[in-house]
Amino acid sequence: MAGYPPWVDAGRLVTIMENTGWIPSTSEFVEIQARSRSFEQMAFAEHRDMELSGSGEPVRVFAARVTASFFPLLGVGASLGRTFLDEENQPGRTPAVILTDAFWRSKLGADPRAVGRTLRLDGQPALVVGVLPPRFHFDYPTLRIAEPVDIYVSYPLEHSYPMYSAGSGRGVAVRVLAGLRPGVTYAQADAELRSIAAVLTHDYPSAFPNIQHNPSLFHFVMVPLRDAIVGTQRSLLWLLLGGVGVLLLIACANTAQLLLARSLRRGREVAIRAALGASRPRLIRQFLLEGLVLAACGGVVGILISGWIVQLLVAVLPVRSPLLASAHLDARAIGFTLAISLISALVFAIVPAVKGSRWTLGPSLNARASGGDGNRWRHAMIAIEAAGSSES
C-alpha cells in the first residue's frame, strides 16, 4: 500500500521552518519569496476556528487560510468547481471558500449547487468556488495541525508586511511550502535560506534579536514535505514491516508443517503414480504446484481484506496517522504481495515436495513408510515458529 499522499512531484516539495522549531510568519514568507531564486513556487497555510452560516444554523468550522498557489503547488485540482485565483488573495476582496469533500457531504448533503453559493464566514460574505477530491488531505498532526480541516479560505495577502518595527512582531505564523526549481539541490536551497536569514537579522534587529551577532542563532531550515508529514512514524513503518515479516514466517512454517504431514500420508498415492510411470521430478512439480496454488489463494485473500483492515485501523486509532490515512492499494502493492506469495511458496513447499516424492514402490503399497525423517523436518518447522513467536 502506498504510504504517502499522491502529490505531483512530491520529491521536490519542502516545508520551511525556523531553526528554533517554530514555523515562519507571513512577514518572513514575503521576504523569502522576494529574495529566493531556488524555489519556483511558494505557498502557505494558516489554520484557525471560524463561524460559518448561510446554510442553516451557524456552525463552527476549522479553516485553513491559504494562498492561491497552495493547490497548484501540491498538484491538486477541484472535483467540483475550481481552486483559488491569484486575485482572490488581494486584500479587500470577498473571501473565496473551497469545501473539503467530507464537509460538503456531511453539512451540505453533497449538493452540487453549493458551488456558487454565498455563505457568511465570521459574519462576512464568502463565495463557495469549489469542492476538493475525497482523497485530498493536508491536516496531519505531524504538521502541527490540530484537527481535520473543514474548509479552505483565500488569504488576504499583502505584498509587504511592515511588521519589523519595534514591538510589532513578525506577523501571523503560517506553514510555508515550496517547490524546488529543476536542477536546484537541497544544499543550494539551504545555503540560500541561511543567507536570507542573515540579511533579515541584520536589517531588522528589533524583530530578530541577535546581540551576539551569531548567524547560527537564527536561520531557516528546509525539510522535505514527505519527511515532515511522516515524522517519527517512519520508524513505526519499519517496525510494522518487521512484525509482518515475522508473522509471515510463522504462517509459512505452519503451512509447511501441514503440507509435510499431508505428503507423508500420501505414500500409497505417490507409489501408485510412480508405478504408472510418474518420475520423481514430475511428482515434485505436483507438490510444488499445490503449494503455489495455496500461496496464491492466501495472497489474493490478503489483498482483498487489506483495504478493510486499513479502514478499521484508521477508525480506531486515537491520533490520525498520515501513513494509514494515505494508504491505498496500487499496482506496486499488488505486485509485491504476489511476489512474496510466490517466493514463500517456493521456499516452504520445497521440503514437503521433496519428502513427499521419496517413496519406494513395495513398502509404500503395503504399509506406511517410517515417518522419522519427516518428523525431524516437522520439529524444525516448530522450532522456526517458536523462534518467530519469541521475536514478535
Q: What's the β-strand tally?
A: 10
- List the domain count as a whole number: 2
Order of helices and strands: EHEEHEEHEEEEHEHHHHHHHH
Secondary structure class reads: alpha+beta
Q: Span between N and C termini?
A: 22 Å
> Which word captures the global form?
elongated
* Low-pLDDT segments, ≥5 res: 163-169, 367-372
Number of helices: 12
Descriptive key words:
392 residues, six-stranded mixed β-barrel, single chain, 2 domains, alpha+beta, 12 helices
What secondary-structure arrangement, pairings included, does this model have?
Blueprint: E1 13-18, H1 26-35, E2 39-53, E3 59-66, H2 70-74, E4 80-81, E5 96-99, H3 101-108, E6 118-121, E7 124-131, E8 151-154, E9 175-180, H4 186-203, E10 220-224, H5 225-230, H6 233-264, H7 267-275, H8 280-316, H9 322-325, H10 331-356, H11 361-366, H12 372-391
Parallel strand pairs: 3-8, 5-7
Antiparallel strand pairs: 1-9, 1-10, 2-3, 2-6, 2-9, 4-7, 5-8, 6-7
Helix pairs in contact: 6-10, 6-12, 8-10
Word description of this protein:
Helices cover 46% and strands 16% of the residues. By secondary structure, the chain is of the alpha+beta class. It folds into two domains: 10-230, no CATH class; 233-391, no CATH class. The chain has a six-stranded mixed barrel. The two termini are 22 Å apart. Mean pLDDT is 78; it is low at 163-169 and 367-372.
Write a concise synopsis of the structure shown:
The chain is of the alpha+beta class and 392 residues long. The protein has 12 helices and 10 strands. Helix content is 46%, strand content 16%.
